[in-house]
Amino acid sequence: MPxxxxxAACLNSGESxxxxxxxxxxxxxxxxxxxxRGQALICRWRAPSxxxxxxxxxxxxxxxxxxxxxxxxxxGVRRCRxxxxxxxxxxxxxxxxxxxxxxAVAATTVAVESVVLRxxxxxxxxxxxxxxxxxxxxxxxxxEERAHHDRAAASVAPRGFWWRLVLPTxxxxxxxxxxxxxxx
Length: 184
Ligand SMILES: [Fe+2]
Ligand SMILES: [Fe+2]
Prior knowledge:
Layout: H1 4-13, H2 17-46, H3 51-75, H4 83-100, H5 102-130, H6 132-155, H7 161-183
Helix pairs in contact: 2-3, 2-4, 2-5, 2-6, 2-7, 3-6, 4-5, 4-7, 5-6, 5-7
Bound molecules: fe (ii) ion (2 copies).
One fe (ii) ion binds next to α6.
């Protein structure tokens, strides 16, 4: 999973690739917290039936962020430069998709969590032998991310306009943010 560019960026900054992975995941979790926060804000009046689940997911994401914060503090690693970009972008995405309704909310979760799960698998394949502590920090969150994905995927039928619009857009944006985070 580590690309040459990402490795070169790490070597230049004096941090290990595992450090960088933790930083990018930490920033991503901050983004996820804010997506669910933004969606909950709007769904309070737009789709109240979603509120309990969105708040449950937000609490999970806060737990994931706290786990990465703890591991980064233990290593003396500072947060990623993409941290605030993730936070602001996540909140904007949450509000926007909340306004578009239930299908857009579910499509956002499916898109984000699919990308996240793919990256987590790649990260774990690398970290398993490279860095045991970072591996453990990443592995801890996988089951909850998978549950977010599966619950959102099961919640919407039929998959109409918003689904087809939001799914590829959010997938691409999430990939772009991770790509950027690995290089900042
Ligand atoms: Fe998460
Ligand atoms: Fe999640």
